[in-house]
Amino acid sequence: MSNMGYAGHMELHEPELRDVPVTAVLAALADDVRLQIVRALAEGGEYACGTFEFGVSKATRSHHLKVLREAGLTRTRVAGTSRYVRLRREELQRLYPGLLDAVLAAPARA
Amino acid sequence: MSNMGYAGHMELHEPELRDVPVTAVLAALADDVRLQIVRALAEGGEYACGTFEFGVSKATRSHHLKVLREAGLTRTRVAGTSRYVRLRREELQRLYPGLLDAVLAAPARA
DNA sequence: ACCCATGTTCGACATCCGTCGAACAACCTC
DNA sequence: GAGGTTGTTCGACGGATGTCGAACATGGGT
């Protein structure tokens, strides 16, 4: 059948940032592994999920990326078998000015 | 006996802010009740613990104030049977510039 | 077509966390 | 000192969370 489209891209769940409570954003950032991921993402463009090797299994990594995505912190682009993740910096900055910068500026290992 | 001193003030556990991991600070802020408390504290000076009526029992309130204190967010002064709590704004601002302001500026009910 | 690489999902498990009532402790007042 | 006020601590309980291995899905390469 022809109405199948060229799809398969399964609609990743990426909420509007304004619908995410601040506490959810903070909770997403309040984890060591996730904060490392966010720091890495803050360096620049897009990263494949596999890029992040922080001593956890790929199941756990996948879980953390999902938490970040559903907290409105990241956006994911699907390309083949890989997924490319990037920070939603501008949106974040618009809704919570200074928050991300402040967190990123904090000493990495307290 | 005279060597009893005039004590009983039991040494509240208030860590150095630099010893608290950022993730702990964020986790402390990542709760609705605690964020309400912090917002109230941000209004000004000192508040007795009993001031905070946010629909939780006093046991729970006590718990949250402990979490905030041990995350280095508040300082507590003991006076009689009351405890007066205040935000450690300057210290926070010095170690995590902009963080608290960004969180406080966020819309209260997302 | 087969295999491999990349990620997600599914239990399962242990731990942490928010919540409460009840008991306790300290202090003030009468 | 008896009683009331203020706040902490102690289980207990239910729900969330981080972690993993194994199974699954999808797509690329040879």
From TrEMBL, chains A, B:
Residues 14-107 form the HTH arsR-type domain. One of its GO terms (molecular function) is DNA-binding transcription factor activity. Pfam families: HTH_5 (PF01022). CDD domains: HTH_ARSR. Keywords: DNA-binding, Transcription, Transcription regulation. The keyword Transcription regulation applies. This is Transcriptional regulator, ArsR family.
